[in-house]
Amino acid sequence: MTTSLPSIAILGAGSMGGAILAGLVADRSATSLTATNRSRAKAEAAAADGVRSIALEDEPGGNASAAAEADVVVVGVKPYMIADLLTEIGPSLRPGTIVVSLAVGTTCAAMEALLPESVAVARAMPNTPSHVGRGVTGVAGGSRATAEQVALAASVFEVVGEVLVVEEAQIDALSTISGSGPAYVFLLIEQLTGAAERMGFTPEQAATMVQETFAGASALLADAKEREPGIEPAELRRRVTSPRGTTERAVEVLQDAGLGAIFDRATAAAAARAAEIAAE
């Protein structure tokens, strides 16, 4: 990424906040970077070249001081901690700052109610592949955010992968696909590995077959999309599935089981849980 980013503060540089911080450190495009963590040990772990890392146990007012110096404030704390944190940092924020929450279920309206009217808000839903620079992040702006501010928020997450700017009404739905999606993939890997072991392969052999097959299939899809823009996964599936062959028989079993309906039910359940979290 070549776009220069302004000063950024990450309040709660834990798992996901830490992934964003690492991406920003590697990208080296931010004017300044500040990160906060509750403990000294976590703050030391988050320290890197060009990063001001604050341990709140040593500097209780560290969140407010970090936010006061930032143009973009990324809030990486748990959903139940959001209200207290925004109330704490609100008076310190400069006009024009955009506050971006990573919390599931916390609406832009709820954040706006806790912050000065001169401050914009946005929601971002990154997923765990952000840790390896292959993330997908959904970004939605609140009612006070300009198009330029939403674009700025999106550019922060481009350091860890692809970004989709969506309406806030789509954020929870997006999180059921890209946010929860890695768990679905791991579950499929887990189940196919178990099937291989039940066929007599050792755990090591099963792991190699399944994990490399998933990695190879993803690489094959990426290569095909580069060589044949617009190609769909369904076409690659058809190319693997010889008429009247073994793969065709296996795919028929999966389709007869209603795999599409199962995923519809799973994503609906995730979306319902996000709505419950928002109401808590």
TrEMBL record:
Looking at its record, which EC class is this enzyme?
Answer: oxidoreductase
The subcellular localization recorded is:
Cytoplasm
Identify the GO cellular component terms for this protein: cytoplasm
Residues the entry annotates as binding NADP(+): L11, G12, A13, G14, S15, M16
| Binding-site residues for NADPH, renumbered to this chain | N63
Question: Pyrroline-5-carboxylate reductase catalytic N-terminal domain spans which residues?
Answer: 8-105
Pathway field of the UniProt record reads:
Amino-acid biosynthesis; L-proline biosynthesis; L-proline from L-glutamate 5-semialdehyde: step 1/1
Q: Does the entry feature the keyword Oxidoreductase, yes or no?
A: yes
User: Which example biological process does GO assign this protein?
Assistant: L-proline biosynthetic process
The record lists the catalysed reaction(s) as: L-proline + NAD(+) = (S)-1-pyrroline-5-carboxylate + NADH + 2 H(+); L-proline + NADP(+) = (S)-1-pyrroline-5-carboxylate + NADPH + 2 H(+)
Q: Which GO terms describe its molecular function?
A: pyrroline-5-carboxylate reductase activity
Q: Where is the Pyrroline-5-carboxylate reductase dimerisation domain?
A: 168-276
Per the entry, what this protein does is: Catalyzes the reduction of 1-pyrroline-5-carboxylate (PCA) to L-proline.
**Which HAMAP family does the entry mention?**
P5C_reductase
> What's the name of the protein?
Pyrroline-5-carboxylate reductase
Question: What organism is listed for this UniProt entry?
Answer: Agrococcus jejuensis
